[in-house]
Structures are given as structure tokens and as C-alpha cells.
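Entry 14. Structure prediction run on the chain below.
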Amino acid sequence: MNPKIELNKVKFVYFLGIGGIGMSAIARWFLKNGIQVSGYDKTPSTLTNTLSEEGINIHYEDDVRCIPQEILINRDSCIFIYTPAIPKDHLEKNFLLDQGIPLYKRSEILGWITEQIPTLAVAGTHGKTTTSSLLTHILKNANKNVTAFLGGITQNYGTNFLPNEGPEDIICVVEADEYDRSFLTLFPYAAAVTSTDADHLDIYGDDSSVKESFQLFVNQIQNEGYLIQKNGLGLKSSINQDSFGLENGNFHARNIRIENHRMVFDMVYPNGIISDIPMRIPGFHNIENALAASALAMQVGVSAEEIKEGIASFKGVKRRFEYHLESNEHVFIDDYAHHPTEITACLKSIKALYPNEKLTAIFQPHLFSRTKDFLEDFAESLTLADEVYLLDIYPARELPIPGINSELLLSKINHPNKQVISKKDFVQKMKIDKPKLLVTMGAGDIDTILGDIKNAIISL
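Output returned:
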């Protein structure tokens, strides 16, 4: 086990995989606290470009010579942090290990940072980014002193990291990531669990191991703490707890209606009702996320009126049901959905908001292993769209699996209007078709063509 490091002795931090959404939040925390930050990532991105503009030195070649010499000379005052997505044969990683330098996972550092701060953690295979971001906004709106480590870029603040204002009465919000069991380094005061569906089976092996890991996470909530879990998950705990759900649970919604393509609902909770809550972020799943966030906010003294104000003014998270076009002529929504459950929730919500429109969907599968594990479920979820396009599988950290490709997934989709297409050809097709209702989905690099798609649709 790696030794804990005293913060006042840290002068440098070096990241392997700094461009990840969670890693970059930690990088920003160190930078905000006056520590020199640098690191490696595989490819440039909008996020790495932003980090560079903020003063972080980033390189994109796996080359030991790119590690700043100042860091290697002063290794005792440097923390080396890596993401589990870094491959085993990575040259810089193996060089540091050969030098006897301890490498810390992001989760270890996050656990260390939040060890002394009352922490509200949001876990779940789906919904944790929106829920933790909404919780952060509710707390900020209520003038709480918040620091937050999020897994997405909030529309309200334009960042995945929010620093606290001074050292007094800090509340920390953390998106608790189940990937590689990272969340087991956290010991929060209170936590929400939004879902425990099977995912990351390349790590866990089977769905029972996923559930077991979430149970271990729940066991680490402080004894005097609080748990809110989605109704029916069945996670066991002896601490104070509630359940939430769209229709059932201690926290649930009623009188859900759609007004001007937006959802409005009443929140029923153990001590009362919050009526007529308008949501700027649509989707039945986002109502559930709002219930979970509200339960945690109440645990730290946020009032019902402040919760209503926070939900009403929350603009959402980039790539989570994000509108790129919204007019009488065209609606273009982008979503991070990359699991069958998420795709189903996304498509059903769009159908509810625009029941009379033809829905065109383009999906970029993420990971060969995930595509293989959920092939039939992906096919079933995608049939909810009226027209389906598939991009090639985005490999991320994986090597190809023979026979697993988008053509195989396409063959499983019971739908007459379906096609595998390249990003370039899809943009060209949008110039011709100009669909009235379009959604893009996926966790890979599909977001790199969103601007091109938008311009294609509105071009004359």
C-alpha cells in the first residue's frame, strides 16, 4: 500500500492520463492549491487544451524524456498519479515503477483529499455525473462552501472542478466511480447510489461482483451518516437511509407533466411536498437524479425552497441530454449514453418530449468488451429510434475482439431503417436529410463532430 503524503511537502504532481474527466479535476485541485502540475495524455482534447491554458504542462508522446527533469530530481516532493486506463506496457509508467517511485491511483488521492472534509458521494453505473453536478449546484445556490470533483463539465460553471472558498465549513461533493473499484477508497458522510446495473464486466467479470462492490462502498459510509438508494436496489445498511424512485420510495415524484417540451413535477419526501418544480434538463431519469440530489442536500441543511430554486436553475452537464439545436425547425440533442439502460432512458425521454416527430439516432459503441457483453440489449434499446445509424466501435483502452464490430450489432437490431456509417459520411448525410429530431449518443469521440453536424443541419 502506498504511503500517505503530507500536503505541505508536495511541490509537484505528475499525471499519467491527465486528460480524463476525473483526473483533470484532481489536477485542477492541486493547481488551485499552488502546486506545480504536469502530465501525459494519449491525445489532445478540448479538456487538455483547457488545462494547458490554465498553466499545466502536458505532452502526448509516451517518452521518458518528456517527464520534467525537475520532477525526477525532486521525486520525494512529487506525487505521481495514474489512471487504470494506462496500458501495462506504457513506457513512462514502467520507467517510474523501475525507479521504485510509488504510483497512486486517482481514487487514492481523492480519498486522501476528502479524508478530513465532510463528503457527499454519488455512486451508480448510471446517473452519477448529473446527480453529483446537480447536488453541487443546489449547494452553491444555497450559499454552502462547496468543493466538488465531478465526472462531467457542468453547464452552470463550465468546469468539472469547483474549489471551496476558504477553509471553514467545507462540504465536498464527489462522483464515486465504480470503475476498477475506485470508490472503495472513499469514506463519505453521506452517499447516494443511483443504480447497480451490470457494467465494466471487463473488470468485474459478472453482475454479482458489481453488486458486491457497491455493497462494500455502502459499508464505508460513516456510522453516523446517511444513505439514499434507488428503490429496489436492495443494498443493506444499518445507518439512517431512504429510497427514491420515479413512482415509489421515500422520495418520489408525482404530477409529472410536460410543458413547452420541459418536465415539471412535484417532489414527495418524508417531511412534505415540494410542488411545481420546473426542470431545464429533460428526461424521466433526470427527475430521479433530482430526487437523489435533493435527499443529500437536505442532509446538510438545504431548505425545500432552496432545492426547488437549485433544480430550476440547473443547466445540466455537457454531453448529458445537451441541446445543440432547439427550434421549431430542428431539435438536436447529444447524450453520453453508452450502456443499454442509458440509451433506453435517453430515447424514451426524447419520445415523450416530442411524441409526434420522427427520431433519428446515431450511436458510437464504446469498447469491444461492452458491445460483446450487452449485444442483444444494445440492439433492443436502439430499436426505440425511428432511424438508427452506427459508427465503428470506439476502442478506448482495448484491442479489437475478433468478430465484434458495429456490423454485428447492426444485424441484431430489428429495424428496417439502419446503417453503419462513418463520421464524415454522416455529416454529409445530415446536409441532405436535415432531420427535425436528432440524437447523438456514445462515450467515445463522437463529440468531435457535433459542431459539424449542427452546421450541416442548419446549412442552406
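The longest strand covers residues 251-259.
Filed with the rest of this week's runs.
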